[in-house]
Fold each of these.
Amino acid sequence: MRATFFSLIFLFSILSYSQDALIGKFCSNLSEQNNIPNIQQRCYTFNEDGSFVEEIKLDVSIILTGKYLFSDNLITLNYDDEKNETTILKIIKISDKKIIFKYLSKNRSSKRIKLYKSIQ
């Protein structure tokens, strides 16, 4: 019984850490952006209140906002736009320094995308 209790606490701490690791700003490395023409950099900022900001830098910057839900290694992004679009990201790896994911949405490429945590 005691071992089960400590196992549950350990498991809960791992799940909590995963959520905490997502909070912050993650940006693409400029040298890895050569596979997407015209995009100079892409950044996602995940806030503690469940909101996010996606910034896409082309010749101009495009800023998209919305709410996110993180569960079962999936991040669901619900955009605040007139279409109420949703994008699903499958987390492959997440740490305090980077996040690697694939798009599960139909309109996006399914290649692995690495974003590195920004130090602000």
Amino acid sequence: MRYLIQTFLADSANGEQLKYEIYLKTMKLDAFNKVPEGSCRIMAYKLEGGLSHLIDDNVDVQPLFDANQPEPNAWYSDGPHRVDINMLIEYLIKKL
């Protein structure tokens, strides 16, 4: 089961309005709003004329996680996961 954690709207460079839905395997984020790698699924919709059209049912965000791997043998006070929900949203907006 996946839980809807975040929904947001964004405008693309060509003026299309997109809706993103971020689902996680857990019901809520941790205290630091970190997103564990492999735990999320993101769906993207194009909004037009009062309708929403699914354009991607599993947006690829693996490059974000790959670029933010924890250092080997390092300890982090906020846990091992390096990607938080705000980073994820910013990444999706930049992909537009």
